[in-house]
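// run 5 | inverse folding | seed 20
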């Protein structure tokens, strides 16, 4: 299947399917003026029920798991619909959102509404915790939190170091 775009736009991350607009939500760069949501793109949706069929046995089994999502920058957009879907199924998950600065944190209110616990961190310390997402994972483990599953979406370098850390933590 090919995807047609009605007008020229540079999408950076797909964030959700919006029933009201009957289309997807894309996080886009509006000519250098920050990120906004484009709600009028007629794109095909990927439904998480299709993913569930191949990966999970039951919701009850899933509810027993301690799940951590780590979102870096625009990686927050594709993390959001997964967390939202789990929330709708009664599964609480923790979410770490990392950004370079406070102005680059996206989808905070949407994520607050669906995450069990939301931890915001900025590289420069301008908002939330200070430092990288890996520091937050280490802090959570030091506080006694333990997870069965970690899903990380963001810049390649962030995902690399999250993977190295989760391997060390046997997560």
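// decoded
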């Amino acid at each position: 299947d090919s995807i047609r775009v009605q007008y020229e736009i540079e999408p950076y991350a797909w964030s959700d399917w919006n029933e009201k607009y009957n289309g997807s939500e894309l996080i886009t760069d509006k000519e250098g003026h920050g990120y906004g949501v484009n709600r009028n793109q007629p794109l095909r949706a990927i439904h998480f029920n299709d993913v569930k069929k191949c990966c999970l046995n039951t919701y009850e089994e899933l509810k027993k798991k301690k799940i951590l999502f780590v979102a870096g920058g625009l990686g927050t957009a594709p993390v959001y619909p997964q967390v939202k879907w789990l929330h709708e199924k009664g599964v609480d998950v923790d979410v770490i959102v990392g950004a370079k600065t406070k102005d680059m944190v996206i989808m905070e209110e949407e994520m607050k509404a669906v995450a069990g616990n939301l931890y915001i961190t900025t590289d420069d310390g301008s908002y939330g915790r200070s430092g990288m997402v890996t520091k937050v994972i280490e802090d959570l483990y030091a506080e006694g939190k333990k997870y069965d599953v970690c899903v990380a979406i963001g810049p390649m370098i962030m995902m690399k170091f999250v993977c190295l850390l989760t391997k060390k933590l046997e997560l």
